[in-house]
Amino acid sequence: MDSRAFLGLERADNSKFALHVVPRLTTSGGFLFGGAGLGAGISALETVTGRRCTWATAQYLSYARRDERVDVETFVVVEGSSITQARATCRVGEREILTVNAALGDRDFDSAGQFVAMPDSIAPEAARPRTLRAAHANSIMEALDMRYVKGRDLDELDGTPSDGRTIMWVRIKSLVDGIDAAALGIMGDFVPMAVGQALGLRAGGNSLDNTIRFATLVPTDWVLLDIQVESVQRGFGHGTIQMFAQNGALLATASQSCIARKWKT
Description:
Layout: H1 3-7, E1 10-11, E2 16-20, H2 34-49, E3 53-60, E4 69-79, E5 83-92, E6 95-105, E7 128-129, E8 144-150, E9 165-172, H3 181-187, H4 191-199, E10 203-214, E11 223-233, E12 236-244, E13 250-262
Antiparallel strand pairs: 1-2, 2-4, 3-6, 3-10, 4-5, 5-6, 7-8, 8-9, 9-11, 10-13, 11-12, 12-13
Helix pairs in contact: 2-3
């Protein structure tokens, strides 16, 4: 299965796509997982333009509920010799759910470099699995394998703040055709979870936005998320994620803001 099959994204015509909000794409509250929405927008835009995504940002406007159909319409705004600027709007009926803006393309440039290093880490197989809440049943969390390198389990969240850093390995269990930009869009939506880790509380949040910037794509089964929550103020959490392949290559960076919320259960 590739990321498009995981999302269930189907092409309706040259510029339009659709997906159904099935349980594997939902949050514990039964809504479309923000990363799945971003991933769908990226996949649609890459398909329409025939170019690889360089940068994409999603603004979350409303919720798509389980069993609803999300229509994804793409718009090519500017198409240059090497870069296309485009956007995708995702709607349920007349209700706009999210908007994805992106730049796509590749350029010839004779220099390259990576200037951040993957943190020291144990192998995914040796890392501690993340314990899920009962509310996570029948949601995207069951479709993911998450292993803590630096993080606290549920019974360790005692109200003591951390340094704001969470590190964990993540993979999409059914994804066998490799990591692509859409898959990274899905996996780059963990700042809300890390807000609870930072505060030491059973807490998370609802995404307001997510911006992802792609570096390089290399074969890897697992992705290491190095998540830093910078602040939780005025009821909002802000953080960044560096995403690494198992060989240490930087795949992408993501930044996100969310509405901070304590869990009800």
